[in-house]
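Methods — Computational structure assignment.
A single polypeptide chain was analysed. Its primary sequence is given first, followed by the predicted tertiary structure written as structure tokens.
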Amino acid sequence: MSGSIQKVITPQKKHIARAFGLKASQYDSYATVQIKILKLLIKQIMQYPDNGLWADFGCGTGILEKLLAETGNSKLITGIDIAVESLTKMMQKVSDGVLPVAADIEHLPFRAECFSGIIISSVLQWFSDPLQILQAMHTKLKPGGTLVFSVFTSKSFLELNQLRTEYGLGIPVRLPPEEKVPELLMECGYKILRIDNFRTVEYFSDARCLLKSLSAIGGTAVTGHRLTRNELNSFCSDFENRYGSTSGVPLTYETIIGTARKET
């Protein structure tokens, strides 16, 4: 299964699609943490039969699809992303067994109970109402269908968020506390089958490299105040003085990785 990219983008999300699309060409080079998480997700995905249609919500440039193909996986996957440029990158990596759809996850163009499995990795933080997204996915899953997920939790990006708050910049995305994720899933009618915690600290040569890395994966695509050059210099200097060490400038990621089943 392959073909041209189907486009179902709502007008109010075109600016977000454009912002993420601009990052598509460099995303893979900077998505080191996301790749680590996807490799852990694949171990869980491979436990389920290849029959039925799966969906990867927020598939980006198709890193997961390529990794799955390298394992010999034969699952049919609908790759859904808001940025056409990201989907184009995905189709350059792997086309067999993958159908690209450019769509807004908040306005999904699929009938109810059409997927045997859904994958959503490092995506929920972009939405103001994650419960709504989980409910929408629940309606698209067949009874007994599988949800494989990863969610950044509130202890992620602590170093950066603390300094952003002091500078009056606010927090671009609101991450849920670790204990909130299972609550949201159960509220939507999922039965949790497995939950693992994953923590990693990435080190950068300086604060500017850290910020560039986040920008390259869309970390500033949705919201955020632009600093003047002097403000940016001050911010980077403060970040390095406070958190820097012989290992470099750190950024902490804490993630919940798990599997759930549609029960009701």
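Note: Residues 6-154+174-199+254-262 form a domain with the Rossmann fold fold (CATH 3.40.50.150).
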